[in-house]
Amino acid sequence: MRAVDWRRSKLTKFIAEPQTEFDIMDDEACLTVEKELDRVVSKLEQLHEIASVEIGDVASLMSELVNVLGNAEQMLVTTLNAGTQMNAPGTSSTDDPMGDGVNMQVETEPAAPQRLTDSQMEIIREAILKCNDRVQKLSTEHRDSHGSVSKIGKAIDRNFSSDFSSTMRVDALQDEDNLMLLNKAIAKHYCRQGMDEVARTLIKECKMSENDAQDVFDSEREFAEIYSIWIQIQKRELSEALKWAIRHSSQLMERHSLIEFRLHRMRFMQLVSYGLESQHEAIVYARTNFQKFAVRYEHEIANLMASFIYLPGGLEKTPYKIFLAQEMWTELSFTFLKDACQLLGISKNSALSVVVNAGCTALPALLNIKQVMQSRQVLGMWNGCDELPIEIDLQPEFRFHSIFACPILRQQTTEDNPPKKLTCGHVISNDALHKLSNGHILKCPYCPVEQNAEEAVRIYF
Questions:
Q1: With left for phi above 0 and alpha for psi between -120 and 50, is residue 340 left, alpha or beta?
Q2: Dist CA 292 CA 295 (whole Å)
Q3: Are 61 and 130 in contact (CB under 8 A)?
Q4: Are 111 and 87 in contact (CB under 8 A)?
């Protein structure tokens, strides 16, 4: 048995029982953090209710204060106007010795403005005091809520491991070639998202060569167009998606793709949803674009035509209301993304996102095995080789090539241990071939055929 197999068998024995214990610990940690989170959310909801009431009271007090000041201002204006009329130029008294023939302006001292009444002053003082009290109360409760929120972070740090250094290979990025590959992967990810300027800034700052920079944009140019159309579909814009589907119509038909018909179907229902004013346009669109799908989708097209019955009342309360839901548009956008990427032979996910998602999937298992190694004092088993100390089962979307497992040794083949096809047609691993051969003679473990071990041929999947 190979050394790595021995290590795996030892680790399997070590973690067979503790693994369940660590799973229970993780569940308890999640429950603890969830309780703390529920407590904070409940407190914030109470604060929201109290704040709504207090702010409403403050608004009422301010409204009352505005009314009081408005009345006082009106009284002041009335008093000043009355004083101005009494002392207006050109008016004279019958006792005036100068007579009416003399035009003389006399400076008079303006009347003193009327002060606020005692009741008005009392209302203003009371309103200001109440506002200050309520604002101070809200400020205190808001400050206390910060302490409750900070407890969530402390609970997470207390119940979960934040040290991931044991699962990292920092030496891999010390190589300049590896670092440049990482920069290219990040730049390609930005190009896929339509963030060309960010990608160019990264290329400039990491001093990437012109050939590598050109490769970044050339390799992702097709996906950038697909990504832009994907965003537009989610925004209910179908013009560019329809142009792309018509341009690749023959290829889509050969692959039996549904995306072209679904795009036309959605555009038709979009026109129908506009009401009676778009009825003629919808009919013309159906006659123009549904003809080549008539054989394959005859029944569905007939159902679509029946939607005209509901035009006077709208589609909101009909079986066709599903075409108005955002979920339908989201599903259409992802169907387009999948079919378009398959047609062009490109991945719908960037290499960077695949690596990050796969790493997040594997991280809990790696942290668990780290704790087991520490408790069993077998940290030396995790060396710097290219193999993980345990097998991690990733989701099917992370499998990009065929995998052959040797039926004899029950292990996956690798570059160092490739699969070999015997002359009888059976396939085993190279290690199994050497273990079963006696000199140059090999007897197939599945059939009684004896053959020359050197005649086995390597095969590629």
A1: alpha
A2: 7
A3: yes
A4: no
Of 291, 284, 298, 290, which Cα lies nearest the Cα of 263? 290
239-247 and 210-234 helices, crossing angle to 10°: 120
CA dist 391 and 405 (Å) reads 13
Q: What CA–CA distances, in Å, run from 73 to 37, 66, 125, 207? A: 52, 10, 17, 71
Q: Using one digit for the tens of pLDDT, what is the confidence trace for 11-54? A: 444 334 444 444 445 667 788 888 888 888 888 888 888 888 88
Task: Name the burial class of residue 78, with classes exposed (0-12), middle (13-18) and buried (19+) by CB atoms within 10 angstroms of its CB.
Answer: exposed
- Three-state helix/strand/coil letters over 48-63: HHHHHHHHHHHHHHHH
For the stretch 123-173, pLDDT in tens is 778 888 888 888 888 888 777 777 777 777 777 777 776 666 666 767 777
Question: CA torsion sign, 26 to 27 to 31 to 32?
Answer: negative
Instruction: Check residue 298 and report its DSSP letter.
Output: H
Q: How far apart are CA 237 and CA 223, in angstroms?
A: 18
3-state secondary structure of 321: helix
The model's pTM:
0.52
The amino acid sitting at 59 is A
Sign of the CA dihedral running 29, 34, 40, 42: negative
| Cα angle 239-243-245, degrees, rounded to a multiple of 5 | 115
